[in-house]
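Re: [ENG-882] Designed sequences occasionally contain unexpected residues at chain ends

Forwarding the minimal case from QA. Structure tokens:
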């Protein structure tokens, strides 16, 4: 799967923990996320493994635990996601999409 695939809310939170810590085990991400919401350890493990399949994380075994690390920085990942969205809009709607996008950017400056 493409590394610029859209991230769901839980995937975003997991990536945020990993971008902050550079690398972490499932247990460490579980601890990071459990501060703000209750979530099952196995759910986090499943999502982290999916992020490996999507090409967003790498996984290496150290002792009995796997450690995960982002393959790209937050900025690189965000740029890829935005590029994919813009490309889709341009391919589907052409010039109108570019004009609308440019107008929105001007509003936020």
């Amino acid at each position: 799967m493409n590394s610029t695939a859209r991230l769901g809310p839980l995937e975003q939170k997991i990536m945020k923990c990993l971008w902050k810590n550079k690398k972490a085990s499932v247990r460490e991400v579980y601890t990071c996320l459990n501060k703000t919401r209750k979530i099952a350890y196995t759910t986090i493990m499943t999502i982290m493994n999916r992020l490996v399949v999507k090409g967003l994380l790498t996984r290496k075994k150290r002792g009995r635990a796997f450690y995960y690390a982002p393959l790209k920085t937050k900025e690189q990942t965000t740029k890829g996601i935005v590029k994919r969205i813009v490309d889709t809009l341009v391919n589907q709607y052409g010039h109108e999409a570019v004009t609308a996008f440019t107008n929105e950017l001007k509003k936020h400056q």
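QA comment: On inspection the terminal residues look reasonable. Helices lie at 9-21, 26-34, 41-53, 74-93, 95-107. Proposing we downgrade this to a documentation issue.
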